[in-house]
Design goal:
By secondary structure, the chain is an alpha/beta fold. It folds into two domains: 24-259, Alanine racemase (TIM Barrel, Alpha-Beta Barrel); 261-376, Lyase, Ornithine Decarboxylase, Chain A, domain 1. Helix content is 29%, strand content 24%. The strands form three sheets. Strands 1, 12, 13, 14, 15, 16, 17 and 18 form an eight-stranded mixed β-sheet that branches. An eight-stranded parallel β-sheet has the order 4-3-2-11-10-8-6-5. Helix 4 links the parallel strand 3 (65-68) and strand 4. Helix 2 (24-37) packs parallel to helix 3 and helix 2 (24-37) runs parallel beside helix 9. The chain is elongated, with a radius of gyration of 22 Å. Its cofactor is pyridoxal 5'-phosphate. Residues 26-259 form the Orn/DAP/Arg decarboxylase 2 N-terminal domain. Belongs to the Orn/Lys/Arg decarboxylase class-II family.
Length: 377
């Protein structure tokens, strides 16, 4: 996944310390693949995945809309050239003053998952469109999303009913099937729940217009994943199954699927050691870990491909850890990672598929280590 452009950049620039390099050509190809796979759905790029200005400017110029989680992300999208009507405030947990500020900036599309959030929006964003997030099980996802977001379908009906009563536009429902979702049937189950909300409210004269199908589109790590076209076909089939010819407006929110495979982290081996003379497992310490941008190795959920100059030679299992003075800074131990026996201190390694959820998860100066540097080419 390290493109020739990335390899050439690293070879000529020789950046010091761990860094992420993102190839915009890959992002461009991914956007076009989503457009082709789901031509009737609006693409709202999830800014939180990677908010690099170069990425946002490219996607804005290509016609993308943006899913934002904060006022800061709203402003990032607008600075990149996106008009307010192509921006959604998709976080269900918002301060009232942030809702008000987004409304002042022209944002009119907001996510909710409870009556209390609807009340806030009604007070400071009159007439805004709201969509209610419905809980899904997340089965099949490598990074499942918890019960922190969303409500059961029956409550979604109450939430949207309340929105209508307060003068808001009860616009639709949303769901998220879990990040790095590899089960094509996941959207079918979620769309079935969405349809129930549509039908119940239609009987009361409240006609919903939109289904936000969220993200979850995967990038390739160590295992192959279905291509965008396969997801498009499965999702369209599920829409036809549940909504027939009356398919509503749809939105997708790719983040990982848009930028994950566009980025590579360059890292260095700081130490290789054992815990006992008869220990068969080496500990390999890199200059990047959970706190430097690899937070998604938590519970070993995401297993990144690691490329070394010694690939093709004999390997043995290693515990892979980061450089900080925190015992939690271990990436792979339950399932050790096979690395070449010839790997040595000072070697550079490439951690592939790291374009999403790395720079934004990097801590600011924990242990004095600077945040993960990023280069977009």
């Amino acid at each position: 996944m390290a493109t020739q452009r990335i390899l050439d950049f690293l070879a000529t620039r020789r950046p010091n310390g761990p860094c992420l390099v993102v190839d915009l050509d890959v992002v461009r190809d991914n956007f076009r693949a989503f457009e082709k796979a789901l031509p009737d759905s609006k693409i709202y790029y999830a800014v939180k995945a990677n908010p690099a200005p170069e990425i946002l400017r490219l996607l804005a110029a290509m016609g993308s809309s943006f899913d934002t989680a904060s006022v800061a992300e709203v402003e990032m999208a607008m600075d990149a050239g996106a008009p307010a009507d192509r921006i959604s405030f998709g976080n269900t947990i918002k301060k009232e003053r942030d809702i008000q500020r987004a409304y002042q900036l022209g944002i009119r599309l907001f996510a909710v998952d409870c009556v209390e959030e609807v009340n806030k929006i009604a007070r400071v964003a009159p007439g805004a469109r709201v969509f209610c997030r419905v809980l899904t099980d997340g089965e099949g996802a490598e990074w499942p999303l918890s019960r922190k977001f969303g409500c059961v379908p029956a409550m979604a009906v109450d939430v949207l009913r309340r929105a209508r009563a307060l003068g808001l536009d009860a616009y639709g429902v949303s769901f998220h099937v879990g990040s790095q979702q590899t089960d094509l049937a996941a959207w079918d189950r979620a769309l079935g729940d969405a349809k129930k909300v549509f039908v119940t409210l239609a009987e009361e004269g409240i006609v919903l217009k939109m289904v936000n199908m969220g993200g979850g589109f995967p990038t390739r790590y160590l295992k192959d994943v279905p291509v965008a076209q396969a997801y498009g076909q499965a999702i369209f089939s599920a829409l036809r199954k549940h909504f027939g010819n009356a398919i509503p407006e749809t939105i997708i929110e790719p983040g990982r699927g848009m930028v994950g495979n566009a980025g590579v982290i360059k890292s260095e081996v700081v130490l290789i050691s054992k815990k006992a003379d008869n220990d068969n497992v080496r500990w390999v310490f890199l200059d990047i870990g959970k706190f430097g941008g690899l937070a998604e190795t938590m519970d070993e959920a995401i297993r990144y491909p690691i490329v070394t100059a010694h690939d093709g030679t004999e390997t043995a299992p290693c515990v892979l850890a980061g450089p900080t003075c925190d015992s939690a800074d271990v990436m792979y131990e339950k399932t050790p990672y096979p690395l070449p026996l010839s790997l040595t201190i000072g070697d550079e390694v490439l951690i592939e598929g790291t374009g999403a959820y790395t720079t934004t998860y990097a801590s600011v100066a924990f242990n004095g280590f600077e945040p993960l540097r990023s280069y977009v080419i």
